[in-house]
Amino acid sequence: xxxxxxxxxxxxxxxxxxxxxxxxxxxxxxxxxxxxxxxxxxxxxxxxxxxxxxxxxxxxxxxxxxxxxxxxxxxxxxxxxxxxxxxxxxxxxxxxxxxxxxxxxxxxxxxxxxxxxxxxxxxxxxxxxxxxxxxxxxxxxxxxxxxxxxxxxxxxxxxxxxxxxxxxxxxxxxxxxxxxxxxxxxxxxxxxxxxxxxxxxxxxxxxxxxxxxxxxxxxxxxxxxxxxxxxxxxxxxxxxxxxxxxxxxxxxxxxxxxxxxxxxxxxxxxxxxxxxxxxxxxxxxxxxxxxxxxxxxxxxxxxxxxxxxxxxxxxxxxxxxxxxxxxxxxxxxxxxxxxxxxxxxxxxxxxxxxxxxxxxxxxxxxxxxxxxxxxxxxxxxxxxxxxxxxxxxxxxxxxxxxxxxxxxxxxxxxxxxxxxxx
Length: 422
What we know:
alpha/beta
């Protein structure tokens, strides 16, 4: 079943960020074996960042949370809040930046609690729900006419090798592309000579796992540095979109996790911020009447396969869902596809190419860790070959081809929505 909303005409946008720092001593989420560790200190501030887009009767929201994943209970709990119901959203996407050194404890399932999320505390989930709703309401209140611009930059080979590497296959390539979708407000009056950035979405693919888990320092990792650097001095709210990175780690292959991590976090975050600024400097005037459409569908997933763990492997698999929510958002001539889990760069590229072939989209952005969590997704060939994180894929080799087919279909429906044109 597919839900669809679309419109054309003047585009409005509003953005906001709300503190997401842990309210009290909390478990740290992100690492197997460290789920009982308590975060010891705050290295840098964490946020819930929201962007609301409006065009005619269609109103869409995007949220980026400085968390390792989106707990399944979050969406329905946020949607039950009166302030969200008053927003009149046609659809919304909530995703995690995937930092592995933020608060956990917000997912009630014993395998998750034991293997990476920490002991469940309803107050931590309530805190996450509250801050998400606050960010959405504040972004809605800031709506104003904007112009849209999009750009894509390829990192030089030397830069790409210092920023990420393939952790499953040393011979496999990384994803060197940085995508930026920027929304600006036109200059107003003599005091404002340049367009003001309201918000931007920056998509890059690499695991934010630069900070050693045993230090227990709460941090947004390199996405946090990237966003705060761009936001400094009134640079607009920056939402980090974690691209397909199930097989990609941040840093260089020869890096030592225990040494130099502090410099790496800053270096990678600032390098990506510099690349973003250079790209934005080359963007042409935006489109004030970009098309806006959102489509969502629930995909029936292949049968769940037991984990290879004695006695409890089948029980663990039963905690994975039987279906997945995937969404497609069209903003102008760009398509953004969301996926509720971790996807390999190879599978992400297969989906991207299929969607580009099927539609006339200028570019396709895949945003992972969105709306729910179904574990890892690889191509059929990669899964059969084996490698790191293999056990975290619960749906077998048929999941990859299924996602290519169904996500391409959804993207095509969104692109061809009534009134959108070619």
